[in-house]
UniProtKB/TrEMBL annotation:
InterPro entries: SEC_C_motif. Residues 1-34 are annotated as: Disordered. Residues 1-20 have a biased composition (Basic and acidic residues). This is Uncharacterized protein. It comes from Brumicola pallidula DSM 14239 = ACAM 615.
Length: 58
């Protein structure tokens, strides 16, 4: 039985922590933020006059 660190794929090959063959995974695209990052201590953009961490940042 495979350990928790091993995973069986469709071909029956066991992938463990030392598996060294190449996998064909789709490359991930980075997430691009449209606006500026909101800091936890900045004013909340909803207009409540509260800090973001105390309002919408929960």
């Amino acid at each position: 039985m495979p350990s928790k660190q091993q995973k069986n794929d469709d071909e029956g090959h066991v992938h463990g922590p030392d598996c060294n063959h190449h996998h064909h995974h789709e490359p991930q695209t980075p997430i691009i933020r449209e606006g500026a990052k909101i800091g936890r201590n900045d004013a909340c953009p909803c207009g409540s006059a509260k800090k973001y961490k105390k309002c919408c940042g929960k």
